[in-house]
Design brief:
- The complex is a heterodimer.
- Chain A is an all-beta fold.
- Chain A has no helices and 10 strands.
- In chain A, strand 8 and strand 9 form a beta hairpin.
- In chain B, strands 6, 10, 11, 12 and 13 form a 5-stranded antiparallel beta sheet that branches.
- In chain B, strand 8 and strand 9 form a beta hairpin.
- Chain B is elongated, with a radius of gyration of 24 Å.
- Classes of the chains: A mainly beta, B mainly beta.
- The interface between A and B is large, with 42 and 29 residues.
- Strand 4 of chain A pairs antiparallel with strand 4 of chain B, so a sheet runs across the interface.
Chain lengths: 150, 168
């Protein structure tokens, strides 16, 4: 079996934590054969590992409490709500919401419009800008780079 | 060099595996970390691909995971391509519409059409994700129009689908 996990000094990349894909030697495989590695400040087109795209839990994740991946919020038409999440990434978050109720013939194209604003360390303002009550599934991701979507 | 990796008890967060970003002290940083075992889920890529779908057609992406995985799909129209590379893409969305224009004075229909729009993505089964070109023009006064071929890219993650089938 190939060496899969390295915590230490790698010839290419230096000190860090590395995990290779199955069948690849973590000590000397190409970067694209790594499934996890600590970034070393790469930039430009060779950029490889900015970090994992992780979901900030809406609750739990500490002590013996399992993390809750998402939350569900019911917002009346024209109203706001304040879905919350754990303070694991300060306010460096990307909010992603999905309406449970999609477009319907009777409610028209304004059925599920909403926005997130005032992103705080533990909660955000969710505004329903549509003409009907909606239920939104909220997900929060740790932002990998403030200058990019992800 | 900053402390980058902590396996153990962190002053903020308790026991776990923590990896800070380059230049940041994993013990004290308040910035989002590269890896944080308190998080609810991680998006680790299982497979990815791209393809085109002719009007009214479907394309099946087989991942063979045996469960419904998290996925991300982006699609575009032929007019969005430049040298084979999409200049803009869209999240999955689809809709049906029936259009009818009536002359009230004559009380007769002067224009009608049924039009489909977008791309429909769903878990066909626990091993396959189906993508359907939803563009269509059926009957009516737009029957001479040709629905477009769609182009898409898909990334499948190891994580189970926590979006309820909508994808990222």
């Amino acid at each position: 079996m190939a060496n899969r996990v390295l915590a230490g000094n790698r010839a290419s990349g230096g000190y860090g934590l590395y995990v290779s894909r199955p069948g690849n030697n973590v000590l000397n495989c190409a970067n694209d054969k790594l499934m996890f590695n600590t970034n070393s400040g790469e930039s430009g087109t060779s950029f490889f590992s900015a970090g994992h795209f992780q979901v900030v839990p809406s609750a739990g994740g500490t002590g013996g409490t399992a993390p809750t991946v998402s939350s569900s919020t019911v917002v009346s038409a024209g109203s706001t709500a304040s879905p919350s999440y754990q303070n694991f990434a300060s306010n460096k978050l990307m909010l992603w919401g999905a309406p449970i109720t999609g477009f319907t013939a009777s409610s028209g194209a304004t059925a599920a419009f909403f926005t997130y604003s005032s992103i705080g360390t533990t909660s955000v303002t969710l505004s329903n800008t549509s003409a009907a009550s909606i239920t939104v599934t909220n997900l929060s991701f740790n932002l990998l780079d403030t200058s990019a979507l992800f | 060099m900053a402390n980058r990796i902590l396996i153990g008890s962190r002053a903020t967060g308790g026991y776990g595996l923590y990896v800070g970003k380059s230049g940041q002290n994993v013990l004290t940083t308040t910035e989002p970390m590269q890896f944080d075992s308190r998080m609810g889920a991680s998006a680790i890529v299982q497979s990815f691909g791209q393809n085109s779908i002719s009007a009214g057609g479907t394309s099946d992406f087989t991942h063979n995971l045996g469960y419904n995985p998290l996925f991300a799909v982006r699609w575009n129209l032929p007019s969005d391509l430049s040298s084979g590379v999409a200049q803009r893409v869209y999240t999955p969305v689809f809709a049906d519409s029936d259009v009818e224009e009536i002359d009230e004075d004559l009380d007769e229909t002067i224009f009608e059409a049924e039009v489909g729009f977008g791309i429909k993505v769903s878990h066909l089964n626990t091993n396959t994700i189906r993508l359907e070109n939803y563009f269509s023009v059926d009957n009516g006064d737009l029957s001479g129009e040709t629905p477009p071929t769609l182009y898409y890219a898909i990334v499948v993650f190891h994580e189970a689908d926590y979006t309820g089938g909508t994808g990222l």
